[in-house]
Amino acid sequence: MPALALLSALFVVGLDQLVQWKYGAAGVVGMLLLSVGIKAKSPAVSSAGAVLLAVLLAGPAL
Questions:
Q1: Is the Cβ–Cβ distance between 30 and 47 less than 8 Å?
Q2: Where are the alpha helices (H) located in the chain, listed in sequence order?
Q3: In 1, 13, 25, 31, which residue has its Cα 20 to 30 A from 55's Cα atom?
């Protein structure tokens, strides 16, 4: 079980670093809102984070 927790933590940290490198501070805020909303079971907060990340991903195409 501790190995699974360690791998999960490494995955989350790696994903956070990738988003921060590619999308900057707005990407970090979007990831934070999404993860906090999921943990708090708040659809409004998680939706706000998902929309922010979607706008960042679609930004160059718009």
A1: no
A2: 2-40, 43-58
A3: 13
